[in-house]
Amino acid sequence: MPRMPRTAKEETIDENKIQLDPKKYIVSKTDTKGIIEYGNDYFTEISGYTNAELLGQPHNIIRHPDMPKIIFKLLWDRIKDGKNIYAVIKNLSKDGKYYWVITETEPNFDALTNKPESYIAYRKAASDKVIKEIEPLYQKLLEIEKSSGMEGSQKYLSGFLNEKGVTYDKYIAKVIGIAGIKKVFFNTMKRIFKKNKHKI
């Protein structure tokens, strides 16, 4: 059966979505206030900003308005507590296009105080399957935030997870399939950048 031509809406979506290379990764480092201290070459390429434009800026410079605030609250609460967290994030490039990533964010600890002194985020392309699973939830959370604020979206997310009988970590692990090759991918990224820590 011949393939039907794409609709104008589908064309628009394709034009606005940045297709990430699944073999490449994005890495960025911020201080504890979220100010960018480092971004690898692929980060600058995909975001559309130069290093000079990114360094010293808050990381939310690439935050997409489609992202519910509650997801970032979860992320910040976790890393401030010295723990890693996985998330699916929709980011915004300088030219207004968007790209979806699976990200693992982890804290770096001060050798003296053993408290977080900076945070590193490792990212790779999110598959269409992952996006299809997570996007309706994000749309619902965003809708709730517009009428009831982040308190409302937090209550909805808690109820959503309770209904499924899972924690956020277990839910997101299932969505992104953080096992096998994906786990190897993230672990490899972390080993590389920890080995070259003096460069970041």
Q: How would you describe this structure to a colleague?
A:
By secondary structure, this protein is an alpha+beta fold. The chain has a domain at 13-126 and 177-199: PAS domain (Beta-Lactamase, 2-Layer Sandwich), CATH 3.30.450.20. The chain is 47% helix and 20% strand. It contains 7 helices and 5 strands, in the order H-E-E-H-H-H-E-E-E-H-H-H. The protein has helices at residues 8-16, 41-47, 51-54, 69-80, 128-164, 168-176, 180-195; strands at residues 26-31, 36-39, 85-92, 98-109, 116-125. The chain has a 5-stranded antiparallel beta sheet with strand order 2-1-5-4-3, with helices on both faces. The longest helix is centred in the C-terminal third of the chain and has 37 residues, at 128-164. It is globular and about 45 Å long. It starts with 7 loop residues before the first helix and ends in a 5-residue tail after the last helix.
Give the number of helices.
Answer: 7
Q: Find the CATH topology of the domain at 13-126 and 177-199.
A: Beta-Lactamase
Outline the low-pLDDT stretches.
1-6, 8-12
N-to-C SSE series?
Answer: HEEHHHEEEHHH
Percent strand: 15-25%
Q: Could you give the order of strands across the largest sheet?
A: 2-1-5-4-3
Main sheet overview? 5 strands, antiparallel
Straight-line N-to-C gap:
52 Å
Q: What's the number of extended β-strand segments?
A: 5
- Give the CATH superfamily of the domain at 13-126 and 177-199: PAS domain
Average pLDDT for all residues: 88
> Which structural class fits the helix and strand makeup?
alpha+beta
Can you name the CATH architecture of the domain at 13-126 and 177-199?
2-Layer Sandwich
Shape: globular
Q: Give the radius of gyration.
A: 18 Å
Q: Helical amount among residues, as a percent range? A: 40-55%
CATH class of the domain at 13-126 and 177-199: Alpha Beta
